[in-house]
Amino acid sequence: MLNQIDKNKKKVAEEAVKYIKNGMTVGLGSGSTIDWMLKKLGESVKDGLDIKGIPTSVKTEKLAREYGIPLTDFTNVLEIDLAIDGADEIDDDLSLLKGGGGSLVREKIVDSVAKELIIIADESKLVSGLGDFLLPVEVVQFGWELTAKHISQLNCVPYLRKKSNNEIFITDNNNYILDCSFEKIPQPIRLHEKLKLLTGVVETGLFVGMVDRVIIGSDNGIRTHV
Ligand code: 5RP
Questions:
Q1: Ligand 1: does its nearest atom lie under 6 Å from the Cβ of 88?
Q2: For 182, phi and psi rounded to 5 degrees?
C-alpha cells in the first residue's frame, strides 16, 4: 500500500513519461521519484517506445537495465533531447537544490546539456527560498578538510556526508559530499559561483536557470509550472 507522498511521486512520474517520444535520447535522473518514472518508461519500452536513456547514477543505470530500458553514453551521443529529474527543493524562480541522493555531478552534466529539462516532484519540494535542505557540495577526497574550511568561510557549516553505518559516503565519481547548512540562499547563482571558485569543489547542488517545466503532484492532482 502506497502512502500519499509515494502516490504523488508515481503520478508525476507517469505524467512525465508522456513527454518522451520515439527516437529521443533521454537523460534519466536519480532518486525515488525517478525510480517510478523508470518503471513506467520500462513499460512503454515494452509496448514499443523506441528511445535511448543516459543514466545520471549507477543506481539509475542498474534499475533502467532491470526495466529493459536501452541505454547509451557520451561516447555515442553528445546531445540529449529531454532530461527528466527530481529535486530536493524548487523555488519560485524554478531554481533547484539537488543532490540529496548524492548524484548531483552526473545529474548536472546530463540536465545542463538537455534541450528540455523536466523536473518531477511531490509538492513538499516547493519552497519560497532555497536552503532549508542542506546544500550538497561534491569535493575531491584529497584535502577535503581544507576545502571544508574554505566553504565554511562562506557562512555555512559543512558536514561530511556519512552512510547509516557511519562510513564516509563516496559518490559514483569517487568523491566526498559536504552537506552545507546555510541560513538562507537568497542568490543561488552567486553562491554557486563562489563555491565553484574554490579549489577542491567539483560541483554544487544548485541548479539555476536550467529548468523548462516542473510537474508537481499533490493530493489534488497534477499541476505544471513553466
Ligand atoms: C539525487 C537528487 C534527487 O533528484 C533528489 O534528491 C530527489 O530525490 P527524491 O525523488 O527521492 O525525493 O538530486 O542526487
A1: yes
A2: -100, 150
Is 145 designated active site? no
Helical spans, DSSP H, in 18-101: 32-46, 58-66
19-28 per-position pLDDT tens digit: 999 999 999 9
- Active-site residue identified among 15, 61, 89, 107: 107
Q: Once rounded to an integer, what is the mean pLDDT over residues 90-94?
A: 97
Q: How many whole angstroms separate alpha carbon 134 and alpha carbon 112?
A: 22
What angle, rounded to 10 degrees, do the helices at 58-66 and 32-46 form? Answer: 30
Ligand 1 pocket test: pick from 32, 122, 203 the residue with the most ligand atoms within 8 Å of its Cβ: 32
pTM above 0.90, yes or no: yes
What are the strands of the beta sheet with 156-160, ordered from one edge? 156-160, 176-182, 135-139, 201-204
Q: What is the ipTM of this complex?
A: 0.98
